[in-house]
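thread from #wetlab-drylab

HS: before we spend reagent money on co-crystallization trials with zinc ion, can we at least see a predicted complex? here's what I'd submit
DV: go for it
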Amino acid sequence: MATDYDAPRKTDDDTESIQALQERVPDKMSSQVDVDDADNPGYELGGADLADVDLDVVVLPPQADEFTCVSCFLVKHRSQVDHETKLGYVCKECAA
Ligand SMILES: [Zn+2]
């Protein structure tokens, strides 16, 4: 007898919980799918772009006719040198 009472109660609880989940899951699933679709391509493209930019900046060393300003640390053409200090060259923009 005891099992007969317990069985229907468990079934009712399961049915209620499943119905509650079924009502909630569709909204979460749809929103998650939308977010994933929107983010995945962006991350892939962004990573590729950043890698290219980093390579361009790092690989290019100062050329023979270029110098690194000791004030702004930008690599500029020698024609932009204003004067030389103990630390190195200062560009015209920083000297102005
Ligand atoms: Zn400078």
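DV: The first helix runs from residue 2 to 59.
HS: ok that's useful, forwarding to the group
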